[in-house]
From TrEMBL:
Belongs to the bacterial solute-binding protein SsuA/TauA family. It comes from the Bacteria. The keyword Transport applies. Coiled coil: none annotated. This is Putative aliphatic sulfonates-binding protein. The keyword Signal applies. Part of a binding-protein-dependent transport system for aliphatic sulfonates. Putative binding protein. Keywords: Signal, Transport. Residues 1-23 form the signal peptide. It comes from Hyphomicrobium facile.
């Protein structure tokens, strides 16, 4: 009798051990980031540095006693993230539309699948990608690069931009220009030593190289009017097994987005500390009226960017197969994250505005209502950027600040045509007879404006002198 009673007791003990083993499961959450690609910050760097993922990972239901093994791996390219995903070392990855599309193709070739779960930051116009020339170059526009050598990171989103820009000129990319492959790191040295005539690149290098003084931007992606973005992908099998974890990751991204919107200067400094990319360049993207828009919704333009990437990659012979966009682009998880965060996905899907500027003119105290001619000054040792309704107000203030012995980190201006944020020292300006100052990325754009509206075309030094002389 006693022997018969022992069997259930043993079974109970074994059953208890099995239950404990299941409930004590360790789940890996491995995320591949691109820290220096600063517009991915809300999908990686800020989540990591502020420990936001830990805040949202599920801790009840089937996850009640789970242990999370959170792994952060930083890469310089999306291709490297894809390699580690295929090798089973990374679950999530952040990258642009072109490498993201290659990610999907690479998974299919490996007999697996990945899904694009969210946009992080981008531009429906194409801003973010750009073409620069050495600062000593006389070239002022893309049209002057025929017969020249242009370098670009191959199979990147900027490679796609370059090909579209060349096509718009009516050129043959195989005969009218010489395109060579160069990473941003190599291109920086090549520009400084004049080994290339121009370089096309993605965020933040078309702004970072001019900021560092050895290059000048002559073409912005918005001129090609082709949408571009960086976003987040995840292994499809992982997402199906742990949908709540995918949603949690995107909730963390939404909070990171809120934090940087509320305190862009603070997080521009954080990104600088981690990456070495100067805060002034980070703010160019992440501040109000920034060069790109942080947007986690799947706007039709971003879906089209993925489709365009696939077709361009075929032309480059980087792939001979397509992807089913209806399954590759998956908005299920980001919609769930919006809902869990108390946000309206459909309303944001319809919103195409830049991050708004809600501020008063630092010189006049008046509310800034029109962003077309906004200018901003970041004073050294001041935590917040100063805002001005007009460039002429900012230029007058600049002289006063310098007279007071204050060092100026940067002056920004908004392009009058496109609305993109510019580094003031690199911009061109038109000053009307009435003293109104408008900023432009390119000299030819400024000349066209002056011809149509009147006024004089000036560089940064020239417009400063003209505004001060009028006082």
């Amino acid at each position: 009798m006693r022997g018969k009673l022992l069997i259930p007791a043993i079974l109970l003990t074994l059953s208890s051990h099995v239950t404990q083993a299941i409930s004590a499961e360790t789940i890996r959450v491995a995320i591949g980031t691109q820290d220096t690609t600063i517009n991915t910050a809300t999908g990686g760097l800020i989540i990591r540095e502020e420990k936001l993922l830990e805040k949202y990972l599920p801790k009840d239901g089937k996850y009640k006693d789970v242990t999370y093994d959170i792994q952060w791996r930083n890469f310089t390219t999306g291709a490297a993230i894809t390699n580690d995903q295929i090798a089973g070392k990374v679950d999530f990855g952040v990258m642009a539309d072109f490498p993201g599309s290659l990610n999907g193709v690479a998974h299919e070739k490996a007999g697996r699948s990945s899904i694009f779960i969210s946009v992080l930051q981008g531009s429906v116009k194409g801003s973010g990608n750009g073409i620069v020339v050495p600062s000593s170059s006389s070239v002022q526009s893309l049209a002057e690069l025929k017969g020249k050598t242009i370098s670009v990171p191959f199979a990147s989103t900027s490679h796609g931009l370059l090909l579209r820009a060349i096509k718009a000129q009516g050129w043959n990319p195989d005969t009218d220009v010489k395109i060579i492959a160069q990473t941003p790191e190599v291109a920086g040295s090549a520009l400084q030593s004049n080994q290339v005539d121009a370089h096309a690149d993605f965020v933040p290098f078309a702004e970072l190289f001019p900021w560092r003084g050895f290059a000048r931007k002559i073409y912005d992606g918005s001129q090609a009017n082709g949408p571009t973005f960086h976003g987040a992908l995840v292994d499809k099998a992982y997402a199906e097994k742990y949908p709540e974890i995918v949603t949690a990751y995107l909730q963390a991204a939404l909070e990171a987005n809120r934090l940087i919107a509320e305190q862009p200067e603070k997080y521009s400094e954080l990104i600088a500390k981690v990456t070495g990319v100067e805060a002034e360049v980070n703010y160019l993207f992440h501040g109000p009226l920034g060069l790109q828009t942080r947007d986690l919704t799947w706007k039709p333009e971003y879906r089209q960017a993925v489709a365009t990437a696939i077709e361009t990659l075929k032309l480059l012979k980087k792939t001979d197969q397509g992807l089913n966009l209806d399954t590759f682009v998956n908005d299920t998880y980001i919609k769930a994250a919006f809902k869990a965060s108390g946000l309206d996905y459909d309303a944001q899907l319809k919103n195409y505005e830049q991050l708004p500027l809600n501020a008063k003119d630092a010189a006049t105290g008046e509310e800034i209502k029109d962003s077309k001619r906004v200018a901003q000054i970041w004073v050294k040792d001041e935590p917040l950027v100063r805002h001005y309704a007009h460039a002429e107000n900012a230029l007058k203030a600049l002289k006063t600040l310098e007279t007071e012995g204050k060092a100026i980190r940067v002056l920004y201006a908004q392009d009058r045509n496109t609305g993109i944020k510019l580094l003031g020292a690199q911009a061109w300006f038109v000053r009307s007879d009435a003293g109104e100052v408008s900023a432009f990325l390119l000299k030819e754009q400024a000349e066209a404006w002056a011809k149509a509206n009147g006024g004089k075309v000036l560089d940064y030094a020239g417009v400063r002198a003209a505004v001060l002389a009028s006082n």
